[in-house]
Amino acid sequence: MTVPILFHHYSNMKSKIKQFYKDVRHNLWHKLFYIFCRFSLALGFIAAGYVKIIGERFASGLAVKHPMGAYLEALHHTGFYYPFIGIAQILAGIFLIIPRTVILGALLYFPIIVNIWILSWAVRFEGSLFTSTLMVFANLYILLYNYDRLKFILPLKSEQLNYTPFRLDKYSKKFPFKFFIAVFLIAVGTLVSSNKLFELMPRNSYKDCSKQFNNNQLQNTNFDFCDCIHYQGKSLDECLNTYEKTK
């Protein structure tokens, strides 16, 4: 394929992306979904941040010997760092609510939620495997929705999108079926993967953890994975490795 043809395809693709972006920004359903993402993310962080500011341990019902419980207990004893995280979360939430500071809020929100997301998957914490993943996607949607302003701080060549905000009565009311089907599939896929991706989960209690095993599995191993997590308080990796060796 010659260079002129490649350039032509690249130009066409870029034009289609720009047009798609304009269609999204001028669609009422995308606008409503954008507002929903902003306020739902803001509510989540404001509530979580308030718990930290008043000095309570987040997810206080989770045992200290649980992998996530041990992390949260240690975080709770980090002095002023703990309420500092709460303040950052509340600020991010407030900035998301205010239209003029949405980008600032989304940029502040993103590294915090990505950290929570990675932590949740690292310790297989079912309490936020599903929600943190969707929150990361929602945060990305907010950032992409504001690409017309965000692009100026990116290390890319900036181009005018010639985007002019519409009045509400001039928004397109065409329902974006493909987009919302994709959102639904992402939500379902995340829900399924967060429950089926791992062979073993520590769960939130010994009772819930033991329900993963049937009688045959318990008889075929002399190692109690759930006891290792919830009563012995060993690390998730150590319990998983021992289980793999003894099953």
Q: Which H/E pattern describes the elements?
A: HHHHHHHHHHHH
Q: What structural category arises from helix and sheet content?
A: mainly alpha
Total number of helices: 12
Q: What is the domain total for the residues?
A: 2
Gyration radius (Cα, Å) is 23 Å
Distance between the termini: 55 Å
Total strand count, please? 0
Largest sheet: none
What is the share of helical residues? Answer: 55-70%
Content of β-strand: under 5%
General form: globular
Mean pLDDT across the residues is: 87
Give structural notes.
By secondary structure, the protein is mainly α. The chain starts with a helix and ends with a helix. It is globular and about 65 Å long. The chain folds into two domains: 17-150 and 192-196, no CATH class; 206-246, no CATH class. It contains twelve helices and no strands.
Task: For this entry, give a set of tags.
globular; 247 residues; 12 helices; mainly alpha; single chain; 67% helix
Topology:
Layout: H1 3-25, H2 28-53, H3 67-76, H4 81-97, H5 102-122, H6 129-145, H7 147-150, H8 177-196, H9 206-210, H10 215-219, H11 225-230, H12 236-246
Helix pairs in contact: 2-4, 2-6, 4-5, 5-6, 6-8
Give the gist of this structure.
The protein is an all-alpha fold. The protein has helices at residues 3-25, 28-53, 67-76, 81-97, 102-122, 129-145, 147-150, 177-196, 206-210, 215-219, 225-230, 236-246.
